[in-house]
Amino acid sequence: MPAAAQYSAKDIKVLEGLEPVRKRPGMYIGSTDGRGLHELAKEIIDNSVDEAIAGYAKNVYVYLHEDDSLSVHDDGRGIPADMHPSGVSALEVAMTKLHAGGKFEETAYQASGGLHGVGASAVNALSTHMRVESRRDGKTYYQEYKIGTPLFPVKITTEKDHNDSLSAKYAPNLKTGTSTKFYPDPAIFKTTTTFSFKTLVDKIRERAYLVKSLTFHIFEEKTGKELHFYFEGGIKSLVTHLNKNKKALHEPIYVSGSATINDITIGVEVAMQYNDSFSETVPTFANVINTYDGGTHLTGFRMALNKSLKDYAIKNQLIKNENEAFTAEDLREGLTAVIFIKMPANDIQFESQTKAKLNNSEAQSAVYQVVKDGLDEFLEEHPTEAKRVTEKVLLAARARLAARAAKDAVIRKGALDGASLPGKLADCQSKEAEECEIFIVEGDSAGGSAKQGRDRKFQAIFPLRGKILNTERARLDKIIAFEELKNLLIALGTGISETFDAGKLRYHRIVLMNDADVDGEHITTLALTFFYRHLPELIENGHLYVAMPPLYKISASKTTKYAYSDEEKDKTIKELKELYPSIKNVDIQRYKGLGEMNPEQLWDTTMNPQTRMLKKIYLEEAQAVDEVFSTLMGDEVMPRKKFIQSHAQLANLDI
Fold first, then answer.
1. What CATH code is carried by the domain that includes residue 264?
2. What percent of the chain has pLDDT over 70?
3. Domain boundary among 381, 409, 437
4. Which region holds residue 293: left if phi is over 0, alpha if psi is between -120 and 50, else beta?
5. Is residue 31 part of a domain?
6. What is the pTM of this model?
7. What is the pLDDT of residues 610-646, one digit of tens each?
8. Residue 345 domain-assigned?
9. Quick one: CA dihedral 312, 316, 319, 325, positive or negative?
10. Residues 6 or more apart from 460 whose CB is under 8 A from it?
11. Hey, which residues are catalytic here?
12. Do 180 and 288 fall within a single domain?
């Protein structure tokens, strides 16, 4: 019998303690790249936020230390340190045992972002070193860990060692609460162990909007930067922030309340405001967790919005019946809303440990009840705002009906479905979408080099002619009428709008490959706008990339290397001079465009899967992305001017 067929009890491996986390870290934090790294920070920060939601913490301090460690401090109750029935301190149990924590009992946390009790213990398992301090009962309890293993039993700091404690250094004025400092393990996070100040600021700002009573303080030791966040208006302030570069049509509408469904009490807060754009921005949150993929709370909101506005329109004779005039698509046009629910931690159900989508059916019913009642009342009491909202939706409906004939002409009659592949597409030989990739390249010169340098088996080339249509404010009929975009859609095979079918995608890697100059960046931005606004599923499913062509070719003697940044150029020059000390000059060529490379160079630097650099596009920071697209590609001039002036120092312009 083959060895592989001899499957017995000894082949069943039992992972003890925190070993499962290190064995399969992606199951607990999503990935082991930069996103997974920041998931560690989020887990610890959210423990402090949970204390604020429970009504016990008013401040959270976050420090990015120079040695790549991160510490979080709050003025909550502190983790209990008394003996647990298991025989060790409750503090040790919380930090070293999976599926352990106060969030399983409603008496400790009515609402929290914690799930499965793996947050702090998972961070501990993926850190080379961690120290936790709990300030309660007038004492400071502490314990240290190495890769999740306690180095000693829980101790109480004495006067002698108190000055070296986290509490003394970073939280001297906090009498109660928890302090945690950890060092991400480079053996797990091989891409980077350095936290991004900007990324953490974005996450912290988001939580500051959600929890009105909480003040955040974040510090970066390396640069001396510090920021403080406190928003009295809560999610109303967040809606205003999201719409700051758009023309709002009315003041934000805010409704809140609670509903008990199946013996589960769920708190609901919703703020919404229409603007004059065509796009929808609706971030959703469950116990401060940003549910990027929405879920049942989003469904409940949309049902309530649809019902309330249709009832109001019928009552005021704006439409005759529910089936007339506007659809769910019309309701979304120009809508910015924030949905925030709070429910008991032991009842909340997410689709996965990464918590991207809420699954509770109770949340749908609760949000529907609260929003329907609150919105009905608002529309009756504020006729001016009600008129503006319904006029916006009815305008979207009329525009949709007016564009239907044109859209049907190009979609329904087969302009995309069944159309032959465009002649400009240099297709690949393979028909297996999983192994195929398409490079979208601007210009005949670069397109020619790409066609010659590619691997024809799995790489297709689609050359663009000039700059494509700005689709930020373009309706579907105009997009399909634009020849370059129409041909691109045919090449991709997915269709668009209601005809979209992700299963028909012909290439699982879509690579935007443009020159490393201002025009190239503009073309890339136009393409990203198109995908983000009209084919977001391709980004969500991980199919969109941006190629990173080198900026420099550096040669010395018989050695040639490529550099992708000025820092890498300087480092490479230094290395070559050390390698060839007798050479006085190193030859440096600055690439202005892809067309300057011959096919072999383009393959080696930008297209070869073994040596190239690709930047994968994610939708997780959708709010920030939406804001940037609206600023740069929208109609409002002043926000764009301000953005350019503020970020001019970051531009890399070649004179």
1. 3.30.230.10
2. 85
3. 409
4. alpha
5. yes
6. 0.65
7. 989 899 988 765 555 566 666 666 655 565 555 555 5
8. yes
9. negative
10. 425, 426, 427, 428, 436, 437, 438, 439, 454, 491, 507
11. 442, 515, 517, 519
12. no
